[in-house]
Amino acid sequence: NHLKKYFPVKSGLLNRTVGQVKAVDDISISIAPGETFGLVGESGSGKSTVGRTIVRLTDKTDGEIKFKGIDLYSLPEYELRKLRPKMQLIFQDPYSSLNPRIRVGDAIGEAVLNHGLAKPNEVRELVLEVLASCGLSSYHIDRFPHEFSGGQRQRIGIARALVLNPDLIIADEPVSALDVSIQAQIINLFRKLQHTRGLTYLFISHDLSVVEHLCSKIGVMYLGSMVETASRDELFKNPLHPYTKALLSAVPIPIPKLKRERIVLRGDIPSPANPPSGCKFHTRCPFAVEVCKHQVPEFRNVGSEHFVACHLV
Ligand code: SF4
Ligand code: MG
């Protein structure tokens, strides 16, 4: 609720604070149990920061984060530690978080022992079981991370999160580094695991065609702000924000009759340290009018839980 994360901008020999980056600037989302919420935007939109503040990898600046009704930021450290296994983060490149000298089975088992979730003699069986549910086997358990392909490494990353028996998985660009054919396999794995384990996902991606296949709800972020949220079906059928339309017009669709109007964005995303006034999107919006430069559009419900922030809607 009203989540904000500001980073100080430092400069000079004395490292003085000269400004701030509003990486996440007052966004609110809710994710129901068993649901998949897709958070979409270009790099620099703040979507990863949302994920990191939820699991407290980085602390929020303001707002409230609740998990199963519990305010995560009011919990004492030891209570938070008990909850941590229930919220797991999966990264784009699990390789960077795997110690190259530690065998995969040990890396996965270590987390279980650290959290006291099993006895040492039970760990191997638990690891084998979770590897199997991720499409890997005992063949993989004693190997080192460098012996695996990108897709297999992501399966290991997923297995390492799953072994803690989480309820919520925050997946930050988990398929972005993979070939398209492998992407589909990993997305199918996410879907299968959701059914068999009743998982809830926050799925972060810059690619709408990836979230389309997995998410029931989608939020689109631009420069730290949410510009549109809706159910997946509503968003794809009736996108209202010009930025969403532009992202969607870049997604290839198989039915020519449904051809969408192609919207090409001018330029790159502006620096979050110095965002445009009024509607932050006005410097790239093909429909911008005078008021857009001065007035911040309100994030409004335009019906059936479809929210959008644009003066023209
Ligand atoms: Fe474009 Fe104006 Fe709408 Fe912003 S408020 S998206 S600049 S039309
Ligand atoms: Mg990111």
UniProtKB/TrEMBL annotation:
One of its GO terms (molecular function) is ATP binding. Residues 9-248 form the ABC transporter domain. Keywords: ATP-binding, Nucleotide-binding, Transport. Belongs to the ABC transporter superfamily. PANTHER family: ABC TRANSPORTER, ATP-BINDING PROTEIN (PTHR43776:SF8), TRANSPORT ATP-BINDING PROTEIN (PTHR43776). This is Oligopeptide/dipeptide ABC transporter ATP-binding protein.
